[in-house]
Write a structure and sequence with these properties.
The chain has nine helices and twelve strands. The protein is α/β, with parallel strands linked by helices. The relative contact order is 0.17. Bound molecules: adenosine-5'-triphosphate. InterPro entries: AAA+_ATPase, ABC_transporter-like_ATP-bd, ABC_transporter-like_CS, P-loop_NTPase.
Length: about 260
């Protein structure tokens, strides 16, 4: 089943964008600051009504009978999530099971434990969220989304606060989620992560769709040059690529890649 938008417009932010994401795949949405990535993701999450166009799930206009049903289908991690109460990590993660409150208690407990383990939060489970570092907090919020086990996982810059090891581990989790048949859609600034870990890449610029396709097509150096205004070069082998950005003066380049 696919999730996408058809001719979507949000005044001043997105214009006439159409894309289709597929379950079982990791889709990355890339683009410079202000390109409309977060706006697109929040529309896919059904949290923002477009001015024109439609959001489609399985080929039909996306409609849910209740907020609970939407939460069962769509797990969403915003770019700057807020935590309203100073609860413990374990309680925060367990909130991810609210959409499945009627599921057997054992099933909910397993989902919560899996999410806590997957995000390396065992040692922090009893800590109040106010005492966590930025990256620990980000992992706890991601665990809450994973605990829901929704049909679609939508995450806006999920790696932004994570160290290298936790970022690599989270990308492995996203891959596993896709292999379980879920749809995974990530806003990513790190183009090497998108190149190495996404199956499909959507590039936005100034509210418009520039290109979509396999990473090597959508993130080709001429596209990086025209969209990000950088002279860039891919190094290494497929799946382990690093992006070298040419400096303004011919001194040195720099490259960083995350490899499993
Ligand atoms: N609430 C809002 N009201 C008006 N304009 C907004 C609002 N939120 C975002 N915008 C504008 O819409 C455009 C797209 O914003 P969006 O947050 O979707 O971009 P983005 O691609 O996610 O950017 P970034 O990489 O900086 O997070 C930007 O020009 C932004 O300034």
């Amino acid at each position: 089943m696919s999730l996408g938008v058809e001719s979507l417009s949000v005044a001043g932010r997105l214009g006439d964008v159409s894309i289709l994401c597929r379950r079982g795949l990791v889709t990355a949405i890339c683009g410079p600051n202000g390109a409309g990535k977060s706006t697109l993701l929040s529309c896919l999450a059904d949290l923002q009504a477009p001015d024109a166009g439609r959001i489609v799930l399985g080929g039909r206009v996306m409609t849910f009978t209740s907020a609970r049903e939407r939460a069962q289908w769509i797990g969403y991690l915003p770019q700057s999530p807020e935590i309203a109460w100073d609860i413990s990590v374990e309680v925060l993660v367990s909130l991810g099971r609210l959409p499945w409150a009627e599921a057997p208690a054992g099933e909910n407990a397993v989902a919560i434990e899996d999410a806590i383990r997957d995000m390396d939060l065992e040692a922090l489970r009893h800590r109040p969220v106010s005492s966590l570092s930025g990256g620990e907090r980000a992992r706890a919020l991601m665990a809450r989304v994973l605990a829901t086990q929704p049909g679609w996982l939508l995450a806006d810059e999920p790696l932004a606060s994570l160290d290298l090891g936790h970022a690599a581990a989270l990308m492995r989790r996203f891959r596993q989620q896709a292999q379980k048949g879920r749809g995974v859609v990530l806003v990513l600034h790190d183009l090497a992560t998108a190149m190495n870990h996404a199956d499909y890449v959507v590039v936005l610029d100034r509210g418009a769709l520039v290109v979509e396709g396999p990473p090597e097509v959508a993130l080709a150096r001429d596209i990086i040059s025209s969209v990000w205004k950088c002279r860039a070069q891919w190094l290494g082998d497929p799946g382990e690529r690093a992006l070298s950005i040419a400096p303004p003066s011919p001194v040195t380049g720099s490259a960083l890649r995350i490899v499993d």
